């Protein structure tokens, strides 16, 4: 299916946020995800479906100050 990932068009086979993160190698601590502008909690990744045309942003959390 076709989605927008971090502002770039991408074709993916994943059906959930968790599967997408595994597919792109970002299934690790320190990652945050927004789907269509709303943050998806880590607890909901496996239950959050991805649909054709969705926009997802994957962020790596960096400590600092």
From TrEMBL:
<dbReference type="InterPro" id="IPR016155">
    <property type="entry name" value="Mopterin_synth/thiamin_S_b"/>
</dbReference>
<protein>
    <submittedName>
        <fullName>Sulfur carrier protein</fullName>
    </submittedName>
</protein>
<dbReference type="InterPro" id="IPR003749">
    <property type="entry name" value="ThiS/MoaD-like"/>
</dbReference>
<dbReference type="InterPro" id="IPR012675">
    <property type="entry name" value="Beta-grasp_dom_sf"/>
</dbReference>
<dbReference type="Pfam" id="PF02597">
    <property type="entry name" value="ThiS"/>
</dbReference>
<dbReference type="InterPro" id="IPR010035">
    <property type="entry name" value="Thi_S"/>
</dbReference>
């Amino acid at each position: 299916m076709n989605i927008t990932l971090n502002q770039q068009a991408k074709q993916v086979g994943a059906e959930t946020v968790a599967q997408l993160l595994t597919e792109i190698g970002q299934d690790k601590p320190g990652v945050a995800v927004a789907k269509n502008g709303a943050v998806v909690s880590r607890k909901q990744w496996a239950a959050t479906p991805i649909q054709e045309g969705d926009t997802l942003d994957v962020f790596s959390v960096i400590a600092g100050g």
